[in-house]
Amino acid sequence: MGLTLAEKILKEHLVEGSFKKGEQIAIKMDQTLTQDATGTMAYIEYVAMGVPRVRTEKSVAYIDHNTLQSGFENADDHRFIGSVAKKHGISFSRPGNGICHQVHLERFGVPGKTLIGSDSHTPTGGGLGMIAIGAGGLDVAVAMGGGAYYITYPNIINVELRGKLSAWVSAKDVILEVIRRLSVKGGVGSVIEYTGEGVKTLSVPERATITNMGAELGATTSIFPSDERTLEFLKAQGREEVYTPLSADPDAVYDKTLVIDLGELEPLAACPHSPDNVKPVRELAGMKIDQCCIGSCTNSSLLDMIKVAYILGGKTVHPDVSLAIAPGSKQVLSMISQNGALAKMIDAGARILESACGPCIGMGQSPNSKGISLRTFNRNFEGRSGTRDAGVYLVSPETAAASALTGVMTDPRTLGDMPQFELPEKFLINDNMITLPADEKDMDSVEILRGPNIAGYPKTEPLCDSLSVPCSLKVGDNITTDHIMPAGAKILPLRSNIPEISKFCFTVCDETFPARAKELGASVIVGGENYGQGSSREHAALAPLYLGVKAVVVKSFARIHKANLINAGILPLTFKNPDDYEKISQGDTVELSSLRETVKNGGDIIAKLGETEIPLCLDISERDREILLAGGLLDYTRETLGK
Ligand code: MIC
Ligand code: SF4
What we know:
Aconitase, domain 3, binds iron/sulfur cluster, alpha/beta, 3 domains, binds alpha-methylisocitric acid
């Protein structure tokens, strides 16, 4: 039986476990990436492990999220990360160099290699034929120390692409269609593998748009083959020597196949407040808009920018619309400044932002009250833009640019004929904003620069045997990490200070939660389906840990968040019978007993609410059980290193 491409790469990197669906396997990680919003914590954890120099082929620390620097906190984080990177063998991508995923694709991604990143959109690297996975900072820290990464052996979903995209329909519309069909939890436990003759019609940055937003399916990762288009991209980046052709065996067996005829797709939009609430732009056409934002790790490549500049060229942004554009990297910004595309954007009235995440994570450009914002980003969760009552629509750069001119949602196919957009054979290469680490002989003399806002890792303790604690919060389905631990300009600067940031935990849902949880001392949270979807931020587990949350009881979990809870030593429990969700109310006291024995040996955990008994499952691996018993991954790693 032939292998899928994902299986081939996983097999080559397998260090533990066997290739059986649903079993835990350990994978060697060749490369790591971090960004600054998760990076400080990841490096505090890395340093705590005591490994002097990273044991990967390539580790890169990017600064791209917290670049507003409205106080000293962000700049201190940048200096801290830069100094850790220099000391411990990590390349440092300085602020201004671009968004981690875009830069990593351009400068470091290698077909066939594995990459783990402390950001959920790390699967962008799948556009180059990598197995690239998003994870919590602690898992990335372990990988930097040479430890393996543990995942459940995934299902492989094949998306077979046929035909060719029509004019003004683009890669964003492809991934919106996949999300429309599969939903925001349709990819949990799966790798999405793209095949079919339509693959070769897409360039690497277009493929990367698709694999990037595969994160919104909850998928472990997404991957494209490595072929002549991959070689073309690597040549343009002056890196053809890392090219290897890679594809699935012709007789590969997939768990499920979805066929998409590219030629039949039309411009799509994900409506508020979920990436799977997808409708054709045609049906929304004419809706008045207030803002357009173009950029983010999903749609900020040179090709995206060239198309946008073409649409804006010689025109003026509608008087009622604010258009902001953030090119994805210094390379992209520099190239559009040389080829005239930037001037077209500026002349049309676009507000040019630095190459960083910016508005995507609510760092500036929040829409007006009840504002309608079209964004080429990947997430439109409630409140993420910084304006609670704004309506964010996720669209392609073509749709955003066309609409910015008309002031209403506009189907870009009304633009008429589309020219053939050509990319240069050689891209501008200048890695001067990547600082290389100190030589091994000099590393001891590098001082770690730690600002006053950088607090330590919260206190952990081995799992207790019984609990009798109140339910401090009950929430519904599809709770995102933006609900649990919001970001944005006010809160993001506190990422290195868990006591401070925890004051904002769950405030999107209930402003009184942090104070209540802290006062209760110990509690459990109850939730519905797909709890913890979205970001990889381990802060969504560390803030609850700090606030005394001992267990989270839900109908189902999103992958990265479940792993982060385990890493933080918080029990991730699911209802054996989902209807039992109704039986627990906020304020009820929940009793859990014989925890250590059940966590160790398996079996149901029985929650008692007075006379009522509710069976709960702890669906985790043997290793996860040991991590929970030890009080979290940091303690477990210290224990195992000690042994
Ligand atoms: C996001 O898009 O939500 C982020 C900000 O990039 C996060 C990481 C973080 O919260 O720092 C992610 O996607 O993992
Ligand atoms: Fe940055 Fe947005 Fe991409 Fe997250 S999704 S890495 S915030 S650009």
